[in-house]
Amino acid sequence: MRLDKFLKVSRLIKRRTLAKEVAVQGRITINDKVAKASSTVKVGDELAIRFGQKIVTARVEQLNENARKEDAANMFMILKEERLEKVEPEFIDDED
Q1: Adjacent-strand bridge partners of 49
Q2: Which residues contact 96 (CB under 8 A, 6 or more apart)?
Q3: DSSP secondary structure string, 44-66?
Q4: Of 3, 4, 43, 45, which cross-links 39 as Cys (Cβ 3.0–4.6 Å)?
Q5: pLDDT band at residue 96 under the 50/70/90 scheme
Q6: Tens digits of per-residue pLDDT, 16-68?
Q7: Which DSSP letter does residue 39 get?
Q8: Please, are residues 49 and 25 in contact by the beta-carbon 8 Å criterion?
Q9: Residue environment code for 64-87, b if the CB has 16+ CB neighbours within 10 A, otherwise e
């Protein structure tokens, strides 16, 4: 199954077009490799998705072409969620 479709059907990301945009920005990895929206997802794959200041790591448990809301949560298992430190931009001193 395509990555963008899996993210939409599993409801990890609400819309397929948004899933595609996130993948194009390089914010999704499958088994520690940067993934495209068209990448193939298999059962057992580990996905890491960066949402702003948070990285969610999930393992693919099932592949369903379409799933009801109750069944969507069974398609993946959240392994960990980690917050990234907010990096403040460096102060630029123009006075020399």
Answers
A1: 28, 56
A2: none
A3: T-EEEEEETTEEEEEEE----SS
A4: 3
A5: low
A6: 999 999 999 999 999 999 999 999 999 999 999 998 889 999 999 999 888 88
A7: -
A8: no
A9: eeebeeeebeebbeeeeeeeeeee
Locate tokens 């580990």: which residue?
46
pLDDT for res 94? 56
Among 14-18, 43-47, 76-80, 92-96, which is the least confidently predicted range?
A: 92-96
The one-letter amino acid code at 45 reads D
Instruction: Show the tokens assigned to 71.
Output: 């069944």
Which one-letter DSSP state was computed for residue 2?
A: B
**Separation in Å, CA 72 to CA 15, 52, 79, 91:** 14, 23, 16, 45
Alpha helices in the chain (DSSP H): 3-9, 16-24, 69-72
